[in-house]
Specification:
This protein has 382 residues and is of the alpha/beta class. The protein folds into two domains: 197 residues, Rossmann fold (3-Layer(aba) Sandwich), CATH 3.40.50.2000; 180 residues, Rossmann fold (3-Layer(aba) Sandwich), CATH 3.40.50. The chain contains 14 helices and 15 strands. Strands 5-3-1-6-7-8-9 form a seven-stranded parallel β-sheet, with helices on both faces. It has a six-stranded parallel β-sheet with strand order 12-11-10-13-14-15, sandwiched between helices.
């Protein structure tokens, strides 16, 4: 079976989950081709069969004029910019003759929908987070999604929560849940050997990640447990704001911002930590998480986690860890959940750790999730 995947930019380092899926599909004997508008990180993310569909270069006057008009005059109508490259992508589809077209993220789905429909090729779109929750706050995208839902298409999403949400825009019978998976062999598991002292958090400094809530809650924890430490990995627009908050709360000796790290170093930080925390929340613009992959990675290596009752996050927690999910944006409740984990004996932490690993093995295993997707490809052909 030949599948052509469309991703506007391939492959951004923040999108490990897309790259890992493509590698796994290759292992399971799917012939994968990638069509993209921009190729990035080709050394760190090597992949065969990548076609770059750029009608003219970045500095070409025609492209700059189109970008200016699209951004400042037409505003929310990216189709104006799309038209410049869609003809090239259309021609590539005719040349490659795929059995299935798979667009990653909602924007890519809207871009590829008319091409797939025109060529009568089975079509799959995968949603992950902002493309489901954030974009639908705009009328333009709501209309796009509802129009796509009328054609032959299969929608995949990463959680039951997201499936229910997307059923407002697509027929529910066309939506399937395929989790973002992890290859467990890549994550060395170990049981906790002592009570919690060192916490870790990972993510981009965006409002929905809730790092401000994490830091505020941690300031209360430090008042009672002054030996507690928190390390945060990530970059983003809100990083300077978090630095100021740390200074304001006199947490410079307890909270450390590590910046962006290579994935190998991130895994080392996970191994060194005693517990993991991510206090995600709904942003003011409506943006929400899908299912954060860092919660899968943390549990895969055996770390007890504290998080929030937000979007699909509860679906990645085993039953014995549901009590460590706080109300989003509720600082006092986050503190309570952290204290509950701090009060656990080493024996109980080990049970939590084992259950977390088993949850990821069972429900977020990339080999199993790739098999689900391959079955969707076969179903779409039928």
């Amino acid at each position: 079976m030949k599948v052509v995947h469309f991703r506007k930019i391939f492959s951004q380092l923040t999108e490990t989950f897309v790259y890992d899926l493509l590698v796994e599909l290759d292992k399971q004997k799917i012939e994968n081709h990638i069509v993209t508008i921009q190729r990035r990180n080709s050394v760190k993310r090597p992949f065969p069969n990548v076609e770059v569909a750029i009608p003219f270069g970045k500095s070409n006057p025609k492209r700059l004029i189109r970008k200016f008009i699209g951004k400042y005059i037409i505003h929310q109508h990216p189709m104006y910019m799309w038209k410049a490259s869609q003809k090239k992508v259309y021609d590539l589809m005719i040349e490659k003759k795929p059995d299935v077209i798979h667009a990653h993220f909602g924007r890519g789905g809207a871009y590829m929908a008319p091409i797939a429909q025109s060529l009568n090729i089975p079509f799959v779109i995968s949603f992950h987070g902002h493309d489901a929750f954030g974009l639908t706050k705009k009328k333009f995208w709501r209309e796009q999604y509802k129009a796509i839902g009328k054609q032959e298409v299969t929608i995949t999403c990463v959680s039951e929560y997201m499936k229910n949400y997307l059923s407002n825009y697509f027929p529910e019978k066309k939506i399937r849940v395929v989790h973002v998976g992890k290859k467990l062999d890549n994550y060395s598991f170990s049981l906790p050997e002592k009570k919690i002292e060192n916490w870790l958090s990972i993510g981009r400094f965006k409002e929905k990640k809730g790092f401000d809530d994490t830091i505020k809650a941690f300031s209360q924890i430090v008042e009672k447990y002054p030996n507690q430490k928190l390390r945060i990995i990530g970059e983003g627009k809100l990083k300077s704001k978090m630095k100021k908050l740390i200074k304001k709360l006199n947490l410079e000796k307890n909270v450390y911002l590590l910046g962006s790290l290579p994935h190998a170093e991130v895994k080392q930080e996970l191994q060194s930590a005693d517990a993991f925390i991510l206090t995600s929340k709904t942003a003011k613009n409506g943006d929400m998480e899908g299912v954060p992959t860092v919660l899968m990675e943390a549990q895969a290596v055996g770390k007890p986690c504290v998080s929030t009752l937000h979007s699909g996050i509860p679906e990645v927690f085993p039953d014995c860890s549901q009590s460590f999910l706080a109300e989003e944006k509720n600082i006092d409740n986050i503190v309570q959940k952290m204290e509950a984990l701090l009060s656990c004996s080493v024996e109980k932490l080990q049970k939590i750790s084992q259950a977390g690993r088993e949850k990821i093995m069972q429900d977020f295993n990339i080999e199993k999730e790739a098999k689900k997707l391959i079955q969707i490809y076969h179903d779409s052909l039928a």
